[in-house]
Amino acid sequence: MPKQKTHKGLAKRVKVTARGKIKAHKSYAGHLMSCKNAKRRRRVGRPFIIEGMSVKRIKEMLGSNK
Questions:
Q1: 28-59 b/e with 16+ CB inside 10 Å = b?
Q2: Cβ distance 59 to 7 under 8 Å?
Q3: By the 8 A CB rule, do 10 and 22 touch?
Q4: In the predicted structure, residue 6 carries a pLDDT above the cut 60
Q5: What is the SS3 assignment for 46?
Q6: Short-list 29, 24, 22, CA closest to 43
């Protein structure tokens, strides 16, 4: 059986932390910032930890053994 390939598009967008959590950046931070309030701009600037059922699927796509 062939090896599982890493999904390169996803690998460029997320990182696996030392404890095995998935860290990513929020969307809506690319442009048109003048119409967003300061609280929202701060929030989208920070990375966040992905939780829930999607973590298992993401780790499979990354080929992570953690």
A1: eeeeeeeeeeeeeeeeeeeeeeeeeeeeeebb
A2: no
A3: no
A4: yes
A5: coil
A6: 29
* Domains parsed from the chain with CATH numbers: 8-62 (4.10.410.60)
d(CA 60, CA 24): 16
Give the single-character DSSP code of 39.
H
> What's this model's pTM, rounded to 2 decimal places?
0.75
For 16-38, what is each residue's pLDDT tens digit?
Answer: 999 999 999 999 999 999 999 99
Query: Tokens at residue 7, please?
Result: 């999904």
Q: What is the C-alpha to C-alpha distance for residues 18 and 30, in angstroms, rounded to an integer?
A: 28
